[in-house]
Amino acid sequence: MDRLKQKFFEKSSSLKAEIKSLAKAHGSTVIDKVDVSQILGGMRGIKSMLWETSELDAQEGIRFRGNSIPQIQEKLPKWKNGGTQSLPEGLFWLMLVDEIPTAEDVAWLSDEWEKRATVPRATFDVLNALPMDTHPMTQFIIGISSMQSDSIFAKRYAEGMNKSDYWDATYEDAMNLIARLPALASFIYRRIYHDSNHIKPDTNLDWSGNFAHMLGIEGEDFKSLMRLYMLIHADHEGGNASAHTAHLVNSTLADAYLSYAAAMGSLAGPLHGLANQEVIKWIFEMCDSIGTTKPTKEQIVAYVNETLASGKVIPGYGHAVLREPDPRFIAQKKFAEEFIKDSDYVNIVWKLFEVVPEILGGLGKVKNPWPNVDAHSGAILVHYGLTEYSFYTVLFGVSRALGVMAASCWSRALGLPLERPKSVNFTWLKNQIKND
Length: 436
Ligand code: CMX
Fold this sequence. Notes:
The protein contains 20 helices and two strands. By secondary structure, the protein is mainly alpha-helical. A hairpin with a 3-residue loop joins β1 and β2.
């Protein structure tokens, strides 16, 4: 058993036993109540899912095993050959076993993913058969699904695997799938935007550094950006649409490939991960409409108001849980302040940060007028030459695999059951209110 798997087995076995006895002793303890606005309002805030890897606080933002973004940036090891950012390999380790890894652990995980990174030829053939204008997220989902025939979980399940081994097969699938994603995603990028001029992996690099290399954007700063990007998008507790989708699908014992492909379908919606492409598209349209890439604050305010008046949302602003500026936005802003001098699009993002919250706040209905993670990422990617914004959500998706795959390992190790909440119809709801 490898070193990470061994640790995971020990940690998850003891929690499993604890959960079993807690369920027996306190199964009927009432934790929370549900009100009508939650039923009608997209189940906001209903506590109904176990998710070990991270938790989201409305004010403070995401905490990975109790660690905020600045804390993980400080505690997690960086690339052994230099680089300014902590490695997402370390975050996966932390999420999976609740321990800060050593530099040696992280180097081991980089090597392990490198060994598992081969994407099957058939997947490339499937992708090459798709029309070039198929959205990159759709290609990504098809690519992931096409690898499902390699699922160790599905194979062992068909052979009659004992349920006490589910966690083991899930761990193997999770590790293989994560390892393959940079090659899959960069294949899609190079196919669509660089005439299928593919770049071989650099086996001396870490997972994100190699991803940056295979995308074809060289330079240490872009590698650092990819490490940061993969770190901050990885997990946002279990209730967000992509994580929840993975959790739901995986609860049927659908394997990691099927669960993650389904999660990517959720991420591809404009209210969720697609917002990162929508933000920069909207900024480009604003610049075209105003006729400059250096708009004044007054021009920006007018454009924001125009967008709202036409019945559209301001992409990159608002959140279902957060009630303060997203720490993931702040982390990217700090990166841009340190590494990017004089980018018109980054300056626009910062001007938007100054004016949009007041405008949205003035509408009186928006619960969170602050920027979320998607408000900043596009402008930085454009600065480094990754201008093809239809691809941006794939980057988000590669990172999100770290959280949802770690969580799937936990779900199978803890033996969490099939997810099955109760739906009601409107008549039932009205009668319930009347009877109350
Ligand atoms: N611009 C304009 N109106 C907004 C808004 C925004 N950015 N954010 C919220 N609102 C509106 C909602 O559309 C809703 O209006 P109606 O009552 O007319 O339907 C009202 O304000 C109340 O919504 P809310 O409770 O504040 O927000 P929700 O929890 O329902 O939705 C979110 C959250 C993210 C979908 C929403 O803020 C939004 O659409 N933002 C823009 C898209 C975006 O950036 N999504 C990315 C989120 C992060 C991620 O998952 O990647």
